[in-house]
Design brief:
Helix 3 packs across helix 6, helix 6 crosses helix 8 and helix 8 crosses helix 10. A two-stranded antiparallel sheet has the order 1-2. It has ten helices and two strands, in the order H-H-H-H-H-H-H-E-E-H-H-H. By secondary structure, it is mostly helical. Helices cover about 55% and strands about 0% of the residues. The protein starts with 7 loop residues before the first helix and ends with a helix. The radius of gyration is 24 Å and the shape is elongated.
Length: about 230
């Protein structure tokens, strides 16, 4: 999902050497600028054609700045903000960024980061428990509860966020989208979770690339287990 920056001149020089001197050692600096400048227009035109053909959108917005703004409005502590940032970064190793707009990614990361601080089913959002397959207790949750959903009212965007309310609707984010984000990112982390204190070779191998954050996969997995155990009691 992220670009690996390479200078176009280097790419053109390598291409030229592959075409003209396939058996020689690669020395891109030996290719003069006159050669690469002549190749540049055709390559740029071909790139534009391919991007237009696949419907590439150059206006894609990254959610990171919005996440920072939401975290400040929520007066999130450093631990919560760090969890949310890791969640947001790891989301880019899934299909979530192409499923949802930036506002959903930012709001969903902050919501889940805040939820991770609580492992008591009585204080956890009912539909979060359902997403985690934990039976929620029968109760009201900061408003009228119907089928596990809290119905909030749209209002002007606040200057501060009440994290115990349905605050994301003030940023044009639907509850269904937050639910979808939470469900998919949690399922993604659980694929990498090891409940054993001693990690298996397979677990270590899955994390050799650093994707996703080993810290977050362990934290989410343990959070899920604690909620399940508390609900049973």
């Amino acid at each position: 999902m992220e670009e690996t920056i390479k200078r176009l001149r280097d790419i053109l020089a390598h291409s030229y050497l592959l075409l003209t001197r396939p058996g020689d050692a690669f020395e891109p600096q030996s290719v003069g600028s006159a050669v690469t400048d002549k190749m540049r227009p055709a390559v740029m035109s071909a790139e534009q054609f391919v991007l237009d053909a696949i419907g590439f959108d150059f206006r894609t917005t990254h959610p990171h700045m919005l996440f920072v703004k939401l975290a400040r409005l929520a007066n999130a502590d450093q631990a919560c903000a760090r969890r949310g940032w890791l969640l947001l970064a790891d989301a880019f190793f899934t299909t979530l960024p192409v499923q949802y707009p930036a506002a959903v990614l930012a709001a969903g990361s902050l919501f889940l980061a805040h939820s991770l601080a609580c492992d008591d089913p009585e204080k956890t959002h009912p539909w979060v428990l359902r997403v985690l397959s934990v039976q929620p207790p029968a109760r009201e949750y900061n408003g009228k509860l119907e089928n596990g959903h809290v119905h909030g009212k749209r209002k002007r965007r606040p200057e501060t966020l009440d994290m115990d309310s349905e605050w994301w609707v003030d940023f044009d984010v639907a509850t269904e989208d937050i639910q979808g984000f939470v469900r998919q990112i949690v399922d993604f982390y659980l694929l990498f979770f090891s409940s054993s204190s001693v990690a298996s070779p397979e677990f270590i191998e899955r994390h050799q690339s650093g994707l996703p954050s080993r810290e977050m996969s362990q934290q989410i997995g343990q959070w899920r287990m604690k909620l399940g155990s508390a609900a049973i009691k």
